[in-house]
Amino acid sequence: MLTMVVGSGYLGGHIGARIRALGGRAVLCSRRPPAARSAAGLPWRELDVRDARACRDLVRRVAPDSLVVVHGPSDITWCERHPDEAMAAHGAGAENLAAAAGGIPVLLISTDNVFAGTRDSYGESDEVAPANAYGRAKLAAERTFLDTGAALALRVSLVYGWDPDGHRPNYFTTCVRALRAGRVVEAPQDHWNTPVLVDDVAAWSAELVRTRRTGVLHLAGPERLSRYAWARRIAAGLGLPEDLVRPVAQAGTAYACRPRNACLHSEQAAGLPELAGLWPVDVDEGARRLAPVAVAADGPPVVPAPRPVEE
C-alpha cells in the first residue's frame, strides 16, 4: 500500500514513518523540502496544493492507494492575520486534492479549532462553530473531503513532541528549550487543552488510513490541562526548574485567538477494533518517552535527507 502524505512537517513525517514501520510505503509532498529529522529518510515530492493541475499531475504520477492530508499553515495566530491565505491553502487546497484523488481514500488531519471552545470538551456529535480563521479553513477542508464519501476527518487536539528543527516548534519543544536556557515561560492558566503525543497521532493515522474508515473521529490526550499546569508538568518530568513557569491570562498572549477550551474527547474510538491497544498516553508518560532526546545537548540524531521519488 502506497500512501501520499500531503504535508511534510513534524506530524506528516511521523505519520509517514509509522506507515513505513507497518510495512507500507509513504511519499511526502509539500511546497518546500522537509527538515531531515522530520522526513525520516522518506521520499519527497514538491507540491503546492493551491495549484489544481499540480495536484492532479502528482497524484497521477505517484498513483497512491490513499492520501493523508496534513497540509496548509498551522500557525493559528498567522491564520487569524491572513484569513484569505489560510482559506486558500486549506479550503481551496482541499478542493484541488479531492478532485485529484478521484475517490481514493483520504485521511484529513483536522483540529479542535472547529469548535467555539465554550464547553469543557467536544465530541464528534457536537455542533461545530469555528473559533477563528484557522478553524473556518479546516472546517471547509473537512466538508470538501467528507462530501466525496471516501474520507475521514481526524480532529486532533494539541499535538506535541520534540521538534528542534521545526519552523514553528510545538509547545513541548518551546517550553523545554526555554527552561533549559533558564528563561521564564509565561503560560496561560485559563487556556485549556487535551495534549496528545505525536507518536499516538501517527499510530492512529496509520491504522485508520489502512482500514479506510470514513466520517469524523476525535483524538486527544486523556487529560484536560491548562497551559500553565502542563508547562509545570513538563518541567517536573524533565527535571527542569518549575519556578520558571509563570501563570498569565490567555488574553494578550499569542494564544488569545484560540478557543478557551481547545479540548476533545471521542464518542466512537472505543468501539473501533483497529485502535485497540493504541490509547493515547498522558503528558507525564509523554515527557518520560521524550526525555532522552529533549534533555540531550544536541537533540536526536540526524536521519538521512529526503530523496527524490523515481518517476
Automatic annotation (TrEMBL):
Domain RmlD-like substrate binding: 8-269
EC category: oxidoreductase
Keywords: NADP, Oxidoreductase
Alphabetical list of Pfam families matching this protein: RmlD_sub_bind
Pathway: Carbohydrate biosynthesis; dTDP-L-rhamnose biosynthesis
EC numbers: 1.1.1.133
Entries under InterPro entries matching the protein: dTDP_dehydrorham_reduct, NAD(P)-bd_dom_sf, RmlD-like-bd
Protein purpose: Catalyzes the reduction of dTDP-6-deoxy-L-lyxo-4-hexulose to yield dTDP-L-rhamnose.
Family: Belongs to the dTDP-4-dehydrorhamnose reductase family.
PANTHER family: DTDP-4-DEHYDRORHAMNOSE REDUCTASE, METHIONINE ADENOSYLTRANSFERASE 2 SUBUNIT BETA
Name of this protein: dTDP-4-dehydrorhamnose reductase
Organism: Actinoallomurus spadix
